[in-house]
Amino acid sequence: MFPVHRPRRLRDHPVLRRMARETRLHRENLICPLFAVPGKGVRREIASLPGQFHLSVDRLAEAAKAVAGLGIPAVLLFGLPETKNPEGSGAWAEDGIVPRAVRAVKQAAPELAVLTDVCLCEYTTHGHCGVPVQRQGQVRVDNDATLPLLARTAVAHARAGADMVAPSDMMDGRVAAIRQALDAAGFTHLPILSYAAKHASAFYGPFREAADSAPQEGDRAGYQMDPANGREALAEMAADWQEGADALMVKPALPCLDLLRQARRRFTVPLAAYQVSGEYAMIEAAAARGWLDRDRAMWETLTAIRRAGADWIVTYYAQAAARGLRA
Ligand code: PBG
Questions:
Q1: According to the model, what pLDDT value does residue 227 have?
Q2: 73 φ, ψ to 5°?
Q3: CB of 204 closer than 6 A to ligand 1?
Q4: Residue of the nearest CA to atom 14 in ligand 1?
Q5: pTM value?
Q6: Of 210, 208, 212, 209, which is closest to residue 224 (Cα–Cα)?
């Protein structure tokens, strides 16, 4: 092709480079995760996630207002309950930490879409995402016994005013169970964003410290997917879509760009990617040592996730990126 074709011609001038750019990040692509904790006036930096905070409901409402002010359309709420128990009943309590946070955010920033993470691991003493059973001396999670608890949790979030629920537990059939429960409770209009392809990933490490949700015994490999599996990821997404999921999520993001690309071709619904805690912490840690440029790493990773096919990106960089996009 050379010398007829010289790709550098369109790289020569900054304006031409800008015109030739194929992938763009918009504020509308961003979803900002927030962590609600008990108490009042609490704004405590999370050690494993520098720049992210544990926020009591009052402070979280302020934070949500700031998020909305940056033009970010949505938040994803996680909650740390006052106390945990083996059932994880804090997850579906009508006055639990997430329902209270939802109500406060809806009041403080009505223009914001409030998404809630539906799972039990933050609420259970054992730290698993469902009901544990002992089998052959090892802890397992009972799939079908977990479904009604997840459904109850989703309905509690809906009653509090959530705009979309996002189940992250990886139980089989949970989208159908949640859909049925929402419909029966009068929430036929409420969409489900399913964490459909979720790997049992090392990159959730910092989150488990942030959400105090590490399993006390065993791991999540019995319900989250083997990171080696891509065909299975597409099957998981197809199943969730058939069960009524309105949007599908792939998680983690950067290790799964191939899955995002394939899913983009195969599914027509909005596709989300979660740039998880470990992906964020990796950049932050390296940047703190001066080993890479934080902002450039942020833009490059977020753009790569978009390029692979994500419409929505759940990212701890939501606010930093929105600030940059505004400038
Ligand atoms: C709850 C949940 C987790 C994450 C989102 N929802 C943790 C896990 O599955 O262990 C991870 C988010 C992150 O790492 O940023 N099940």
A1: 98
A2: -80, -20
A3: yes
A4: 204
A5: 0.97
A6: 208
Positions annotated as catalytic residues are: 198, 251
Nearest to 78 by CA among 69, 86, 70, 63: 63
pLDDT in tens, 252-309: 999 999 999 999 999 999 999 999 999 999 999 999 999 999 999 999 999 999 999 9
- Strands (E) across 83-160 are located at 113-118, 131-135, 138-142
pLDDT of the residue at 116: 98
Q: Are 167 and 119 in contact (CB under 8 A)?
A: yes
d(CA 191, CA 115) in angstroms, rounded, equals 10
CA distance 221 to 36: 27
- Main-chain dihedrals φ then ψ at residue 94, nearest 5 degrees: -65, -25
If you compute the radius of gyration of the chain from its CA atoms, what whole number of angstroms results? 20
Task: Map residue 72 onto helix, strand or coil.
Answer: coil
100 C-alpha to center of ligand 1: Å?
A: 21
Enter the tokens of residue 51: 């720049």
Q: Is 161 in contact with 187 (CB distance < 8 Å)? A: no
Nearest residue (by CA) to ligand 1, atom 2, is 168
* Ligand 1 pocket mutation, candidates 31, 204, 254, 315, criterion most atoms within 8 A of CB: 204
- Give the closest residue to 124 by CA, choosing from 105, 136, 142: 142
Task: Kindly give the distance from the C-alpha atom of residue 45 to the centroid of ligand 1, in angstroms, as a whole number.
Answer: 18
User: How far, in Å, from the CA of 5 to the mean position of ligand 1?
Assistant: 47
Q: Is 209 exposed, middle or buried (0-12, 13-18, 19+ CB in 10 A)?
A: middle
Is the Cβ atom of 129 under 6 angstroms away from ligand 1? yes
Q: Which residue, among 248, 242, 246, 253, has the nearest Cα to 308 in the 3D structure? A: 253
Atom of ligand 1 nearest to the CA of 278: 14
Domains and CATH numbers, the chain: 22-326 (3.20.20.70)
Would strands 131-135 and 138-142 be described as parallel, antiparallel, or unpaired?
antiparallel
CA distances from 71 to 48, 160, 319 (A): 27, 23, 9
